[in-house]
Amino acid sequence: xxxxxxxxxxxxxxxxxxxxxxxxxxxxxxxxxxxxxxxxxxxxxxxxxxxxxxxxxxxxxxxxxxxxxxxxxxxxxxxxxxxxxxxxxxxxxxxxxxxxxxxxxxxxxxxxxxxxxxxxxxxxxxxxxxxxxxxxxxxxxxxxxx
Length: 146
Prior knowledge:
By secondary structure, the chain is α+β, with helices and mostly antiparallel strands. It has 4 helices and 6 strands. The chain has one domain (15-143). The protein has helices at 40-46, 62-74, 115-125, 135-143, and strands at 15-18, 24-27, 34-37, 88-91, 99-102, 108-111. Strands 1-2-3-6-5-4 form a 6-stranded antiparallel β-sheet, with helices on one face.
């Protein structure tokens, strides 16, 4: 018999839901956080099934994001739903300013409400294919027939 995973914030039993890319996440019906087993978050971030809303001005939110990140880092550690070890808070990706709770034994990651969408938005905005070249470079490439 499989062990029921519980939310590390409120101890509610997690329910399995299909997210995207063939990934089923264990989510909390109360706080709406989610437990992602090893590799599931990476699979979600590589998949483009859901439309991701683009932020109007990501720079304007930099101070607020830095404040939230500092506040989140100071919060007490939560326990891994799989092995009960304390999770460590780590910034996911380079300069995302989004902290996720990571199991030191490699069981997976806990993401709070809205963090999957925020990470998807961050990755969509920073994909090399999505970046716009400065107009002078675009003009040069056009002139060269590229």
